[in-house]
Fold this protein.
Amino acid sequence: MVVVTGSVARGDHDVLSDVDVELYVHEPSLLLEDRSWYETFGDVLAVEELSNPGWHPTRLLYLVDGKIDFAICCVDDIGVHPYTRPFRVLIDKDDRSPGLSSVGDRGQTPPSEDAYSQCVNWFGAAALMQAKLIVRNEPWLAKQRDWGLKTELLRMMEWDHCVRHGWGYDTWYNGKHINQWADPDVRGKLDRCWSGLNVDEMRPALMRSFELFEELAERTGVALGFALVDHHRVQEEVERILEHPAP
């Protein structure tokens, strides 16, 4: 069976969109261990072969004038994971498409208090470490910590928007379409949370990130009835670290 998902299935794709394809086959190993079939789809420039533990392995083909993302699935997995977005069946030789289903619900569920606490703590840890790396003039490592920090900021942004707009509000995934789903006030503040590879630029971006996270975390925590964390203690420590002279 061949199933198309993503923007092509939704009908909102453009010339730069990937084509997302799920291949349900009887012997996935034949496709996973062989590379000769890649060239069938065009002039291959690069390939990412991902095992994706806990999910289907994928083969991402970067082609001249296009990209195709193949998920290599076993026919026994048909219908195991209901679709939350549109899909299209292109080929169904075994008449298995009736086993596919759609839940029709793209919303999130409220986080547990443990998940909320983890997000707050991981953000704080990343902020503290990034501050040290900024002082030590380690811009590359500081950027790595900044990405971890931004991952938690995005997670809190998604919860905050669902708290305010309902848990059926579509925040997509990995920041996709953030210009469409993020409210203008949050989006405007987010613009100031980024910097280049200069540690002097990273200092104010870190503090703006902290301020935005604190605002979102407090609003989300109050709405969900969670115990709030004293963000000021972490902020004071970040500021203290940033005042250190470079070693």
Summary: The mean pLDDT is 93. Strands lie at 2-5, 19-25, 44-50, 58-63, 66-74, 88-91. Residues 189 and 212 are 7 Å apart (CA to CA). The chain has two domains: 2-99, 113-242.
